């Protein structure tokens, strides 16, 4: 019997729940005037340091050169490229357009997984991804309306966000270093991903960004703690569930973000938004519906 901590549904819901807190915390960081690049760096560097300490305490094996190379590509595909493109495209294409781009990530992941034969999803998982995508589209259109007109290069650059996330999901499964534990992988990937973010912050960061951020210490500590917990289960979910199953965390996080907005930020949403959340829930149920024969879908 699979240990509870390694059950795909438990890991999916836990990762999505923790990721869902990113939305209200990100809004609070913007309200506090914290530089988005510094916030992105905090999400990688803080958890990377914490998880490295925990990992070294339980596993003193030496890192290999191949591990660092894997972590570099994984961090670039999963964090650096999507974040940089999002920050660059958002002012030009609008929040609604970018929300739709993130909704495409599981679809791209499933397509690449099947095309490359990397733990291709089964029918149930594909149906769940389809329902989740429909729910995410409902939420995006209801919250932000029709996407803003996206002209020129930003229209196409925005499409690179789900492509980068999808490639990253498949890459981590296909090239996961043999014998490397998920916790160690989470620490190394986040620390390596922090390096290009430091460069971006140095070049394009706001003046006094660090001083401004330090005026909200509790917010910083809360984000680091939640990020560390999220990455702990995120990489275990990747290890257990595979790329397409993992990609559903964005749908779960979107639904959790709605609940956080209502409970903590007193936001009010139209009925279609809640219909989208219900559709996402139905997708998760379908993805995890028991089958008589377990296959490579997850």
Fold and architecture overview:
This protein is an all-alpha fold. It is built from 14 helices and no strands. The protein has helices spanning 8-20, 22-31, 36-58, 65-93, 95-103, 105-116, 123-144, 153-174, 182-204, 209-213, 217-241, 243-247, 249-265, 271-287.
Give the helix/strand class: mainly alpha
* Rg (C-alpha, Å): 19 Å
Mean pLDDT value: 85
Count of distinct strands: 0
- Write down the overall geometry: globular
**Strand/helix succession:** HHHHHHHHHHHHHH
Number of helices: 14
Could you tell me how far the N terminus lies from the C terminus, measured between alpha carbons in angstroms?
Answer: 15 Å
Q: Tell me about the largest β-sheet.
A: none
Q: Unreliable stretches, pLDDT < 50, 5 or more residues?
A: 294-298
The level of helicity is over 70%
- Measured by DSSP, the beta-strand proportion falls in under 5%
List the helices and strands and how they pair.
Blueprint: H1 8-20, H2 22-31, H3 36-58, H4 65-93, H5 95-103, H6 105-116, H7 123-144, H8 153-174, H9 182-204, H10 209-213, H11 217-241, H12 243-247, H13 249-265, H14 271-287
């Amino acid at each position: 019997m699979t240990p509870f901590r390694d059950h795909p549904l438990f890991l999916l819901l836990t990762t999505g729940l923790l990721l869902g807190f990113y939305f209200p915390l990100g809004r609070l960081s913007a309200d506090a005037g914290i530089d988005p690049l510094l916030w992105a760096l905090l999400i990688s560097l803080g958890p990377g340091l914490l998880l490295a300490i925990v990992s070294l305490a339980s596993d003193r094996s030496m890192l290999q050169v191949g591990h660092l190379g894997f972590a570099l590509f994984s961090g670039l595909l999963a964090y650096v490229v999507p974040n940089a493109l999002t920050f660059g495209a958002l002012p030009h294409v609008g929040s609604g357009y970018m929300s739709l781009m993130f909704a495409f990530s599981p679809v791209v992941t499933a397509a690449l997984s099947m095309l490359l034969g990397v733990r291709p999803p089964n029918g149930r998982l594909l149906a769940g991804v389809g329902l989740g995508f429909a729910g995410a589209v409902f939420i995006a259109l209801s919250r932000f309306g029709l996407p803003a007109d996206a002209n020129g290069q930003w229209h196409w650059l925005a499409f690179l966000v789900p492509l980068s996330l999808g490639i990253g999901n498949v890459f981590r499964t296909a090239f996961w270093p043999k014998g490397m534990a998920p916790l160690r992988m989470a620490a190394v990937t986040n620390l390596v991903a922090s390096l290009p973010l430091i460069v971006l912050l140095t070049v394009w960061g706001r003046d006094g960004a660090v001083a401004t951020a330090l005026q909200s210490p509790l917010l910083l500590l809360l984000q680091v703690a939640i990020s560390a917990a999220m990455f702990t289960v995120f990489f275990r979910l990747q290890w257990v569930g595979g790329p397409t199953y993992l990609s559903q965390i964005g749908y779960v996080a979107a639904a959790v973000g709605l609940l956080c907005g209502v409970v903590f930020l007193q936001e009010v949403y139209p009925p279609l938004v809640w219909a989208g959340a219900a559709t996402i829930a139905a997708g998760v149920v379908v993805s995890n519906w028991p089958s008589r024969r377990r296959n490579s879908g997850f």
